[in-house]
Amino acid sequence: MKIAVVGTGYVGLVAGACLAENGNDVVCVDKDPAKVRALQRGRIPIYEPGLEELVRRNRTEKRLTFTTALERGVRNSQIIFIAVGTPTGEDGSADLQHVLAVARDTARAMNGYKVIVNKSTVPVGTAVKVREVVRRETTHPFSVVSNPEFLKQGAAIDDFMKPDRVVIGAEDPRGAEIMKELYAPFTRTGAPIMLMDCASAELCKYAANAMLATRISFMNEVANLCEATGANVDQVRRAVASDRRIGASFLFPGVGYGGSCFPKDVKAMVRFAAEKDYQFAILEAVEGVNDRQKLRLLSKMQSHFGSLKGKRIAVWGLAFKPRTDDMREAPSVPLIHGILAAGASVTAYDPEAIPIARGIFGSKITYAESSYAALKGADALAIVTEWNTFREPDFERIKKLLSQPLIFDGRNLYNPEQLRAHGFTYFSIGRP
Ligand SMILES: NC(=O)c1ccc[n+]([C@@H]2O[C@H](COP(=O)([O-])OP(=O)(O)OC[C@H]3O[C@@H](n4cnc5c(N)ncnc54)[C@H](O)[C@@H]3O)[C@@H](O)[C@H]2O)c1
After folding, report:
1. How far apart, in whole angstroms, are the C-alpha atoms of residue 10 and residue 59?
2. What per-residue confidence (pLDDT) applies to 263?
3. Pocket flag, ligand 1, residue 121 (CB < 6 Å)
């Protein structure tokens, strides 16, 4: 099939490359000329495992191209995916300006029947708005489809190629049939294609993310209660997770959730519920708990040191999670700002995110070339992202490099008893 994917970020680039891999002709459109130029030269603007190779193969075989020219992309395609950002607007709602701009420009470029597929995460009612915008601009026939994306950064290609489910919200059978055909190769292993109305398709993406965010905030509160009562969250989590009705995913306490999706989607869901006079009380609490949790390591440092003035803290991990360089809403950001505001300095290391971090902190912090280099002379190590390379470090080397053997572990990577046996003062989340 001939496909245009508009918006070549995490979602658009992965979707475009994976659709090309299955034999489709895909043109990825982005309004950012620098990004498009880089992609045309084979440079991938984000870090996502396996993506570079996938893009290279499909470019070489001429199934995947990149352009800023939306009009040409639309005219040559039957299916147009909208995969642009839907950032948080001033009042917490999802800002739809990019989605609606692409819908309008797509409509103006149409030269026949098109399926306009919304892949961005958008509030209920957006398909209706997209349809109105398109109808105003063209007399050509079209179908509007909602096809929310559930991929996880860090495992995005696998998630797209082998999805748990494909959700297709469609209001007419023509659009639904084309989408079913497009996704058939991705669902051969038995994952269901779930056909539904557009409003339900739009809502299920928010409900899924909000549920995952709720599990994280819930477990962070359980961990905080463990600290207050002397219980151990490792034991509590294992017992809770072994209940088959509950399961083990997304129950690890830590420094709070971040990234480009959970924070913004929780906010947007609270907001569009409020617009319908519904107070989504659980999600309001989920957000408040998460904001507090992001500063949990800072309060542990403050209670340990009394004052942070003049201290130097080594920070391991800046990305909001491992296997990505994305720092949007990363817990490392408020934590580092908090440490700096308390009068301490920061030396940070991350395997992938340092170029992004430079854009956020500039020269306010120093950047280390390696995890160990960050430690030299620091008063403590704070662990913020659970990269695999941090899991089995050389503790004797850490001890020699730090000015005192002190670790604040926001990801519960180590065994507290073993660390104490190594001579460390060790603080983690929810464990004695
Ligand atoms: N990142 C994720 O893990 C993820 C997962 C599922 C769903 N989503 C949703 O998918 C959407 C996109 O997310 P993302 O992380 O890929 O965003 P992103 O910010 O990485 O990429 C968006 C891209 O769209 C481009 N763009 C904006 N307006 C444009 C226009 N008018 N014409 C052409 N290009 C335009 C931008 O230049 C940018 O390259 C969001 O709604 C997000 O919530 C994201």
Report:
1. 18
2. 96
3. yes
| b/e burial code for range 103-124 (CB count within 10 A of at least 16 → b) | bbbbbebbeeebbbbbbbbbbb
Q: Binning pLDDT at 50, 70 and 90, where does residue 407 land?
A: very high
d(CA 158, CA 32): 27
Is the beta carbon of 39 within 6 A of some atom in ligand 1? no
Helix (H, G, I), strand (E, B) or coil at 180: helix
Determine the pLDDT at residue 189.
Answer: 84
Backbone angles phi, psi at 350, to 5 degrees: -145, 140
Mean pLDDT, to the nearest integer, of 255-273?
96
Whether 12 lines ligand 1, by a CB cut-off of 6 Å, is: yes
Cut 0.90: pTM above it: yes
Pocket flag, ligand 1, residue 106 (CB < 6 Å): no
The residue among 293, 317, 318 whose CA lies nearest residue 391 is 317
Active site residue 261: yes
- The one-letter amino acid code at 15 reads A
Instruction: Please state, for a pLDDT cut of 70, what percent of the chain lies above it.
Output: 100
Burial of residue 307 (CB within 10 Å: 0-12, 13-18, 19+) is exposed
Q: DSSP of 48-73, one letter per residue?
A: -TTHHHHHHHHHHTTSEEEES-HHHH
Q: What is the mean pLDDT of the chain?
A: 97
> Rounded to 5 degrees, what are φ and ψ at 256?
95, 160
CB of residue 208 inside a 6 A radius of ligand 1: no
Rounded CA gap, 204 and 225, in Å? Answer: 31
Q: Whose CA is nearest to atom 35 of ligand 1?
A: 7
Of ligand 1's listed atoms, the one at least distance from the Cα of 148 is 7
Which residue's CA lies nearest to atom 28 of ligand 1?
98
Structure tokens of 98?
Answer: 């990019």
Whether residue 137 has pLDDT greater than 90: yes
Burial of residue 136, with CB atoms counted within 10 A of its CB: 0-12 exposed, 13-18 middle, 19 or more buried: exposed
Distance, CA 83 to ligand 1 centroid (Å)? 5
Q: What secondary structure does DSSP assign to 225-293, as a single string?
A: HHHHHT--HHHHHHHHHTSTTT-STT---SS---SSSHHHHHHHHHHHHHHTT---HHHHHHHHHHHHH
**By 3-state DSSP, what share of the chain in percent is helix, strand and coil, each rounded to 5?**
45, 15, 40
Q: Give distance in angstroms: CA of 121 to centre of ligand 1.
A: 9
SS3 151: coil
Per-residue model confidence (pLDDT) at position 284: 98
